Amino acid sequence: MTDQPHDENKLIAQRRAKLAAIRENGIAYPNHFRRDVLAAELQDRLGDKTKEELEGLSQRACVAGRIMARRGPFIVIQDMSGRIQLYVDKKNLPEALTVQIKGWDIGDIVGGEGPVHKSGKGDLYVNLDDAHLLAKSLRPLPEKWHGLADQEQRYRQRYVDLIVNQEVRQTFIMRSRIIDYIRRYFVDQGFLEVETPMMQVIPGGATARPFVTHHNALDMALYLRIAPELYLKRLVVGGFEKVFEINRNFRNEGLSTRHNPEFTMVEFYEAFVDYRHCMDRTEEMMRGIARDLLGSEALEYQGETYDFGNRFARMTVKESILQFNPEISDSDLDDLDRASAHARRLGIDVKTSYGLGKVQIEIFEKTVEHRLKDPTFITAYPTEVSPLARRNDTDPSVTDRFEFFVGGREIANGFSELNDPEDQAERFRRQVEEKEAGDDEAMHFDADYLRALEHGMPPTAGEGIGIDRLVMLFTNAASIRDVLLFPHMRPED
């Protein structure tokens, strides 16, 4: 192990010497070469042709990519679509060019042109009659790039991870396709895609600790967005009755396999529907992603199978607690003292400020969340922990709210929106009291949002879906860092 840095430095020095020689003889990083086809396109077009058919077609190709391997006279290059081979025929190339090619290293970016042939093994290759070094790789690629020992390095040097690990490339291709599917789904359903501020005077729309910044010209504090919710609902007030935003949010919280300080969500709002409609829409979209992008409504995640083809389970917060905690009775959950006693028994620190709804949620998060493996909607969240959701008409202690869980993780949160400005004002006031009592995640009082509600917001339902966690699910990724191109990391030593 101690020899590795020394060996790497020696290789870097050798490559720098090659680059210096190239500079002396001409342009080191030329930009004149133009490829006319990608590796995958060439494979799709000509891969099924026989060796004899290819000879008769006299097909030519200009290809370019990074050298990944050298096998005798064959050079394997990789572009954004896949791999193709170059063949170096010393008999048909100028001696000076063959000398240059001999000096190419693994990792160099090169371009080549010539007729397309097929090897005896059935592999396509470009028989070079011209070739160019386009960019010298000064650092050698790792021979092996896997295992726990390299995990942090893979996150820090994602560019290397993408070069050498095809599975990682596929993960991020799938991420892009999922986002594209979501965007097309909402556009096809008549939603308008919008953008809302990422720097806000008042952070709202969620209970979270924000990042604080400062605007010099205005000499005022600003907050990075924790959610776009309140701005999107302002647009519903303004008459845009179906809106969505694929948005970046920032929350000043810890790092874990499920959390990153910045993350991606899609939030959507629809007038004249309720939370049940959002659940139906979520179920439809999740099933569509599985079917269209995976080719199956059943997906594998971390050794377990989840079937998106069946109707998703639906139960209330209280029903789920009772299902997974047989020692707790229905009446226990309706009494603050008895519910608090159960919470303390479970090792939960029950603060004096907690009401019954908060205690219920603490028990739910401790004993239920991680057990919700199959696609499940949990409904009827306590009003106490749902400051922006509409109260239920028959039971005002809960709201018309749901959260969506798969694999023991929350994926989405939605509800029928609170459009009563007086009720909203009172809930904001209670949030301010909690903030003054020391809760860093409690909401601010947003007077302008109340002013918007006072103009009248139609009955509306909305939802936020965490795209990072969704991608984890559909790519079988154990950690959120596996689906973020550049996850936040602690400083290097």
Structure summarized in a few sentences:
The chain is α+β, with helices and mostly antiparallel strands and 493 residues long. It is built from 15 helices and 19 strands.
Structure description:
- By secondary structure, the chain is α+β, with helices and mostly antiparallel strands.
- The chain has two domains: 3-135, OB fold (Dihydrolipoamide Acetyltransferase, E2P); 163-325 and 368-483, BirA Bifunctional Protein, domain 2.
- It has 15 helices and 19 strands.
- Strand 9 and strand 10 form a beta hairpin.
List keywords for this structure.
493 residues, alpha+beta, BirA Bifunctional Protein, domain 2, eight-stranded mixed sheet, 23% strand, 2 domains, 36% helix, 15 helices, OB fold (Dihydrolipoamide Acetyltransferase, E2P)
Major β-sheet, in short?
Answer: 8 strands, mixed
Radius of gyration: 29 Å
**Spatial strand arrangement across the major sheet:** 7-11-12-19-18-17-16-15
CATH-level-4 superfamily name of the largest domain: Bira Bifunctional Protein, Domain 2
CATH class of the largest domain: Alpha Beta
Distance between the termini: 18 Å
Number of strands: 19
Please count the helical segments. Answer: 15
Oligomer: single chain
Rounded mean pLDDT score:
93
Overall body shape: elongated
Number of domains: 2
CATH topology of the largest domain: BirA Bifunctional Protein, domain 2
Strand content: 15-25%
Determine the fraction of residues in helical runs and give it as a percent range: 25-40%
Low-confidence stretches: 145-149
In the CATH hierarchy, the architecture of the largest domain is 2-Layer Sandwich
Q: In terms of structural class, how would the helical and strand content be classed?
A: alpha+beta
